[in-house]
Amino acid sequence: MKRLRPPMPPQIAALPRERGFPVPWVADWADGKETVEFDPELGRVLHCDCVSGQGRVTLGVNCAVRQRQGMRDRLCGTCGTPLNGPMAMIGVKDMPYSFEPGLHVDCAVFSLLACPRLVHSAESAGVVVTDGYTLLEDRVLGLDADHNLVRKLLPPVLGAVSGGVLSFLVAVIPDRAQRFGAAEWLDANRHVLTATSPTPTEGPQ
Question: What is the CA radius of gyration of the chain?
Answer without folding.
Answer: 18
